UniProtKB/TrEMBL annotation:
<dbReference type="GO" id="GO:0003700">
    <property type="term" value="F:DNA-binding transcription factor activity"/>
</dbReference>
<dbReference type="InterPro" id="IPR036390">
    <property type="entry name" value="WH_DNA-bd_sf"/>
</dbReference>
<protein>
    <submittedName>
        <fullName>LysR family transcriptional regulator</fullName>
    </submittedName>
</protein>
<keyword id="KW-0804">Transcription</keyword>
<dbReference type="InterPro" id="IPR036388">
    <property type="entry name" value="WH-like_DNA-bd_sf"/>
</dbReference>
<dbReference type="GO" id="GO:0043565">
    <property type="term" value="F:sequence-specific DNA binding"/>
</dbReference>
<dbReference type="InterPro" id="IPR000847">
    <property type="entry name" value="LysR_HTH_N"/>
</dbReference>
<dbReference type="Pfam" id="PF00126">
    <property type="entry name" value="HTH_1"/>
</dbReference>
<dbReference type="InterPro" id="IPR005119">
    <property type="entry name" value="LysR_subst-bd"/>
</dbReference>
<keyword id="KW-0805">Transcription regulation</keyword>
<keyword id="KW-0238">DNA-binding</keyword>
<comment type="similarity">
    <text>Belongs to the LysR transcriptional regulatory family.</text>
</comment>
<feature type="domain" description="HTH lysR-type">
    <location>
        <begin position="1"/>
        <end position="59"/>
    </location>
</feature>
<dbReference type="GO" id="GO:0006351">
    <property type="term" value="P:DNA-templated transcription"/>
</dbReference>
<dbReference type="Pfam" id="PF03466">
    <property type="entry name" value="LysR_substrate"/>
</dbReference>
<dbReference type="InterPro" id="IPR058163">
    <property type="entry name" value="LysR-type_TF_proteobact-type"/>
</dbReference>
Length: 303
């Protein structure tokens, strides 16, 4: 029995509560994972997991061993990283989930520079706007806009997104250009809404003009839960919508979108990286987070 593999298999079964999901995330067969955990229990002479046909629960001994195993695996990762001289670059595989537009417009165009700097880091990207089970899917971190409400995660704020209201010229030609955001509440204009994965609802965006404060909601003709589809709907002239500045900039320059309500200012939206509290922040994860934060400074954040 490889004690490292067995410990890693046990940790993943505890975190996913499933031998099948643990096997998928470790890229092993379920039989292999089962055998490794059984061999570990035999070696330790304690029962680590209670298994039924429907679920897997950790025992009291298993919970205590899990806490130590997580720390040992983290220390081993640190030891492997620091064994060589100080100039050794971070290496290994990361699993990261990004919002689709942020991946397409900000991260992917900059990846050649990251790969040139850290050639030994391999990244598996999930590109979505869905809720991600970080522990169950063995994801190292997610990048998300808005507040991170899950108190079980550690969230690091890496910047703020500047927001604005926009419409396509085709929409303005058909419905007219709204001059005040309150016109959007009258029903005379359509709004394209974004459905947030954690609530499955749209929510109002706060705007300021001098001492005035307005929460902008509007009449939603269409709503989308994918950022790329949401942007495509706005470009197709389906309605007025908010957009982060980085998503609108190129389209405004090509006269494909028209900025609205120039005398109003949107409150910015926080952008954060979130990861599990028991997930060791390895050198490879640390440099990735710092790199994404630098991208926010360079162009995705306030302009």
């Amino acid at each position: 029995m490889d004690r490292f593999d067995a410990m890693q298999a046990f940790v993943r079964v505890v975190e996913t509560r499933s031998f099948t999901r643990a096997a998928d995330t470790l890229r092993m067969s379920k039989t292999t994972v089962t055998q490794l955990v059984q061999q570990l229990e035999a070696r330790l002479r304690v029962k680590l997991l209670n298994r039924t046909t429907r679920k897997v629960n950790v025992t009291a001994d298993g919970a205590a061993y899990y806490e130590r195993a997580v720390r040992l695996l983290a220390e081993l990762d640190d030891a492997e990283t620091s064994l060589s001289d100080a100039s050794t670059l971070p290496r290994g595989r990361l699993r990261v989930d990004l919002p689709a537009p942020f991946a397409r417009l900000v991260v992917v165009p900059a990846l050649p520079e990251f790969h040139a700097r850290y050639p030994d880091i391999q990244i598996d990207f999930g590109v979505s706007d869905r809720m991600v089970d970080i522990i169950g899917e063995n994801v190292d971190c997610v990048v998300r806009g808005g507040s991170i409400l899950d108190q079980s995660l550690i969230a690091r704020r890496i910047g703020d997104l500047t927001l604005g209201a926009f419409a396509a010229p085709s929409y303005i030609a058909r419905r007219g250009k709204p001059l005040d955001p309150r016109e959007l509440e009258s029903g005379d204009h359509d709004v394209v809404g974004f459905l947030w994965a954690r609530t499955r609802k749209t929510y109002p965006y706060v705007m300021h003009r001098g001492d005035e404060r307005l929460e902008w909601q509007g009449h939603h003709a269409f709503t989308f839960d994918d950022g790329n589809a949401f942007q495509a709907a706005i470009l197709a002239g389906l309605g007025v919508a908010w957009l982060p500045a980085y998503m609108a900039k190129a389209h405004v320059a090509r006269s494909e979108l028209v900025p609205l309500f120039d005398d109003w200012r949107f409150e910015t939206m926080p952008m954060s990286v979130a990861y599990p509290p028991n997930r060791h922040v390895s050198a490879k994860l640390r440099v990735f987070i710092e790199w994404v934060a630098s991208l926010m400074d360079e162009g995705a954040g306030p302009s």
